[in-house]
Design goal:
Layout (H helix, E strand, L loop, with lengths): L1 E6 L2 H16 L5 E6 L5 E3 L2 E3 L1 H11 L16 H9 L10 H15 L4 H11 L5 E4 L7 E6 L17 E5 H7 L8 E4 L11 H6 L3 E4 L4 H9 L4 H7 L3 E5 L2 E2 L2 E2 L4 H7 L6 H8 L10 E5 L3 H5 L3 H4 L1 E5 L8 H8 L5
Parallel strand pairs: 1-2, 1-9, 2-5, 9-10, 10-13, 13-14
Antiparallel strand pairs: 3-4, 6-7, 6-8, 11-12
Helix pairs in contact: 1-2, 1-14, 4-5
Length: 335
């Protein structure tokens, strides 16, 4: 069975690890492809950084930092310490030494004329990753975050507020340096309308037997994927079932700032809110099926989206003996 997973970084990477481990333990009956967000990509210290791709590759290769969930295990930080001595203003984003090597290789290959998908395939293969990892596009499509100007009242502003009342920053500046504060006016996938899906992306969706939407941030990980021309149409027209996993448990993200992002786009921070944001495929949305945490079952069952998509409740926290159950439920085309 061909399984295509749409995902972002840390949460998506963990989900892919669970699927890949289940697949290996059961004789590898499935061909797994990951289509990964690149809206977080940016250039830092002259190096091209792809945080979501690297989180996925490191996790699948068994190289990830188990404490942070991002970066490399057994990392050292001599380069960052030296940079901090001379350029303290850039230390808000820190790369470990092994991470710097990875980004340097990516930057070198891009400068040599290789595309991001070619670079990703080469590095993933070198790290021993068996899952096919595809950036959603080879084109730069940075996620821009629109913030209220300091001292302004966010309630009085809108994304298209006249007179330049707000400021625009790169996603990583808002997410890392500002710790996802304040609540944004909105998000923009800059250049997405002119971008092209990377080779293999649309085929991976169109020819899949099952498409899974990982429990990644729906606003800044999944929505940027859908902004690339052709991706949403491929999802709505594929013959495969499209099943998503809720990124929220009890209305809260397991990690990260998904609740802040949802508030910015006016979506309720619940499993039903996210499912409603994606929509039921029978009504022009994306979802045929939806997996939610067992603790959210009662609330979800009472919602209108709960009547329009097939769904199942199960323990959705990875680890704690749940991984086998989550993988089996996600890979069930009968949902």
């Amino acid at each position: 069975m061909k399984v295509t997973v749409l995902c972002g970084g840390v949460g998506g990477a963990k989900f892919l690890e669970v699927l890949d481990r289940w697949n290996t333990q059961h004789g590898s009956p499935h061909e797994l492809t990951a289509v990964v967000n690149v809206g977080d990509d940016f250039t830092h210290l002259g190096l091209r950084v792809s945080p979501d791709i690297d989180s996925v590759v490191y996790r699948l290769a068994g190289l990830n930092n188990p404490v942070h969930g991002w970066g490399r295990r057994d990392e050292t930080h001599r380069v960052a310490q030296e940079v901090a001595r001379h350029l303290p203003e850039v230390t808000w984003f820190e790369l470990g030494d092994l991470d710097i090597a990875n980004c340097a290789m990516r930057t070198h290959l891009l400068h040599e004329g290789h595309t991001l998908s070619e670079v990703t395939a080469r590095l993933a293969s070198s790290y021993g990753v068996g899952v096919r990892v595809l950036p959603v596009t080879d084109d730069p499509v940075p996620t821009l975050v629109q913030l209220p100007a300091e001292g302004s009242d966010p309630a009085s502003l809108s994304v298209d507020a006249p007179g330049g009342q707000g400021i625009t920053v790169l996603f990583q500046e808002w997410w890392v340096q500002r710790k996802a504060q304040p609540v944004p006016l909105g998000f923009v996938s800059h250049g997405a309308g002119e971008a092209h899906p990377a080779p293999g992306v649309l085929d991976a969706i169109a020819h899949a037997d099952l498409v899974l939407i990982a429990p990644s941030n729906p606003v800044v990980s999944i929505t940027p994927l859908l902004a690339i021309p052709g991706v949403r149409q491929a999802l709505t027209s594929t013959s495969a079932r499209v099943v998503g996993l809720s990124p929220l448990i009890g209305g809260r993200p397991v990690r990260g700032y998904a609740d802040t992002c949802l508030a910015a786009v006016g979506v309720e921070s619940t499993s039903a809110g996210v499912a409603g944001m994606y929509g039921a495929r029978q009504e022009g949305g994306l979802l045929d099926g939806w997996l939610i945490d067992a603790g959210d079952e009662q609330d979800f069952a009472a919602t209108s989206i709960g009547q329009r998509v097939s769904w199942r409740a199960l323990p959705l926290i990875f680890g704690q003996g749940n991984d086998e159950v989550i993988a089996a439920a996600a890979l069930s085309v009968d949902l």
